[in-house]
Amino acid sequence: MLFELNYKYGVGGAAYPNYELVVLLQNGQAAKLGGYAVDAIRKRKPADVGRWQRAGREYRVRWEDGDTSDLKPTVGPPKPLPSASNLVGRFQAIGGGGNTALGGGTLTAQVKEFDFRRDGTFSHSNKKSASSGAGVGRSQSGSGGRWDLSGSTLTLTYRNGRTVRTSVFYSGARKPDAKGGRYGVLWIGGDDYRRVR
User: How many whole angstroms separate alpha carbon 197 and alpha carbon 190?
Assistant: First the structure.
C-alpha cells in the first residue's frame, strides 16, 4: 500500500495536497483504493486498475487508460490499524469547493463525520452548506448501525439492512503522544478523516 500525491480543490477553491491510496499486489496488479475494500479490485473502473513494476527506489504504475504514476515508498506508507479498538472515536473529514479563494463569491463546504463506539455501533453524518450572492443553503443527513473491522476491511451494517465493505488505513504520527494520537489520521473509504475525539 502506497500513496499517490496529487492536488485537488477544496473549500472556496483553494488547492491542497491529496493523498490517494494505491494497492500493489504480489501478482503485479495495482489499484486505486477509493471507497473499496482491498480485495474488491474487479469492481473498480479501468482507469483505477493497472500493472506495477519497480523503478529504482520508486514504483511505476501503468493504468489501463494509459496514464502512469510514480509512487515513492518514503511517503507514508499507510498501514492497517493494529486492532479494532484503535478505531473507537469520532473522526471528521472536511471538503468543499467554490471560487472565493480566486476572488469569486461562491463557497461550498461539506463536513462528514463518523463516530465509532466501543459497543460496536456507529453513527455517520454529512453536513453541507453553500453560499453565494443569491443566498445561503444548508442540508444535513445522518445514519448509523453496527461496525466491524477485520484487518483493513471495515464492514458497516446500517439499520436499514444495507451493508458496505470499505477499508481503513492510518498514516499518523510516529509518537503516540502527538496531537490526535498515533492513529489520529485515518483513510476511511479513501477519504482522510482526522480524530476529533
Answer: 20
